[in-house]
Amino acid sequence: MSRPPSTVRDEVQSSEPLLDAERGRSTRVDGEGNSVRRAEFRSRSPVTVQNNRNRYALAALMLVLSLGSFVLQTETAQYIQRDLGWNKAYCMMYLTHGSWAFLWPAQLLVLRIRKRQIPFKNLLRSHVSLLRSTLDMILQADRSSHPQDVAHPFYYLLRCIALVTTALTIAGSTWYIAVNLTTPSDLTAIYNCSAFFAYAFSIPLLREKPQADKIISVMIAVVGVLVVAYGDNTNKQEQDGSASTRLGGNMLIGVGSVLYGLYEVLYKKLLCPPSGTSSGRSVIFSNTVCACIGAFTLLILWIPLPLLHWTGWETFEIPTGETAKLLSISIFANAVFSGSFLILISLTSPVLSSVAAL
Predict the structure, then answer these.
(1) What residues does the EamA domain cover (predicted)?
(2) What percent of the chain has pLDDT over 90?
(3) The domain containing residue 159 runs over which residues?
(4) What is this structure's pTM?
């Protein structure tokens, strides 16, 4: 699909480098070695500077939102399963991930409120056009994409959503199962090791070069989490449970940590706009992708629910009372966390997002 000329021009401007080879120099040297005063203006674009400021500010906001919502989700999920006895790991995962589908209608509502002077039909048409052009940008930037993907971007999107959702579902299921098997310290420490695996997967999938400073930074961050998690482990409640169930929970969340790192990198590689895309476009497309993951979860991943019920592994039970209230809070917190975290990855990188979230 062809892109509008204005869109191409905006994206070219937003991808200009912040610094050029001679920025900041008041003189230059000509071919004969003579110093010549520069008369031209500096090539730094004010539009580029403002776009980068907006990107950094938005990334900081998304980081704060993701941290706060993750803590709230973790605490409510543990309380629901351990104290209230509603131990439905897969059902809880299905409900929380399925709630992401409402991010797109919420986003459209915000756009409608901000642009009330535009007829809704025109607003929706413009919104869909922006999403399709962003998907075209992703396909054009991916050198490994096939011509068939470029010709049929919807099927590419559906295939990528299925792949990313599969990795996320397995990783998320391990987290919800391990909540009731291991201690909160183990759960936090091992799960946050996904930052290391995100960097490991970034090398072959995102073509990142191994750098000593990045490796050291990731290792320091992971060690810091381990120290915080185990440095003051005086709570007797965290010592409850047999060693076998704790070991099994730790191994399970270890697998989830690997898959969550893979999920982050796959999302960045397959479903993120290229570097230099405006922050507003990145946010809109990221929320849409998150909503697509939620829709895929609701439409496809309900199938294991009756199977788990019939086999007796996880009987289906509608939550009531306090359980229903706290579950609603946990679902809302997870939607906020996931939406903000995917935006953070889109604006930065999987490694930086994971390390920052530690």
Answers:
(1) 89-229
(2) 42
(3) 51-357
(4) 0.79
